[in-house]
Structures are given as structure tokens and as C-alpha cells.
Amino acid sequence: MDQIANPAPGFQRNPDKVITIEPYAGIVTVRAGDTVIASSANAKVLSEAPYPAAFYIPFTDIDFGRLESTDHSTHCPYKGDASYWSVLPAGEIGQNAMWAYKQPFDEMAEIRDHGAFYASKVTIEATPG
Q: Whole-prediction pTM value?
């Protein structure tokens, strides 16, 4: 196996932790009211118990013109440092509604250049293909 250049400290401490990333067979659409923020046939589903599954949408399928980057950030010992964007058409509830790992740990490289949204802040529709 190739040596990992930027390994996740979480997996080193907890090698039994399971996070799966799979392609979603269908279309994922993210809306704020009637405004489409993202729509993709290339989304990925990240599953990590005990959290609900999250759709990660390629940056190329996200309308960054309707987003504004924020100073908010969080750290995950399995994925890395997350950056956040506010969904402008959602108003106050849309603050920090999207996150992404610009430089994820090697084990999570599949979600690089993908954004995920909080279902409590925007409408996420997944239509199986």
C-alpha cells in the first residue's frame, strides 16, 4: 500500500472508524426558497455514524455567485479543516449553510472540491436516477 502523505489523525487513533463515500445514482438539487444553489448528477454520499448521510456536490455544480465565504471553520480529525459559505438567498438562516474540505486528509481525498449543505438551512432534494 502507498504511504499516505497527509494521514488523518482520527483514523490513526481510531482505526475501526468507518466513513464511506459512494456516488449517488441520481440528481441532488439544493434550493433556498425557489432559487437553485446547486444541482448535480455527480454528487457523492458520505456516511459517518452517528451523523445523517451528507451529499457532497462538486464545486463545478454549485452556483458560487449565490454564496459568500465566511470566516467560520471547523476541524474534523477524520476529514480535515472545513471552510464555510453562506447561502445569500436564504437570508439569515443561510449563514454558514455550506461547508467544504479544501485540503482534506488523504483518506477523504474524494470530497476535495465538493461542498455539502445543512438540510436545516436549505432544501436538499435527492431524486434517484
A: 0.94
Cα 75 → chain centroid: 13
Gap between the Cα atoms of 97 and 47, Å rounded? 19
Tell me the C-alpha distance between 13 and 30, whole Å.
Answer: 35
Ordered strands of the 54-58 beta sheet = 20-23, 44-47, 54-58, 114-117, 98-100, 80-87, 67-76
> Could you give the strand order of the β-sheet that contains 26-32, starting from the edge strand earlier in sequence?
35-40, 26-32, 123-128
At 50-72, the pLDDT tens digits run 999 999 999 999 999 999 999 99
The dihedral region occupied by 96, where left means phi > 0, alpha psi between -120 and 50, and beta the remainder, is left
DSSP state for residue 99 in the 8-state scheme: E
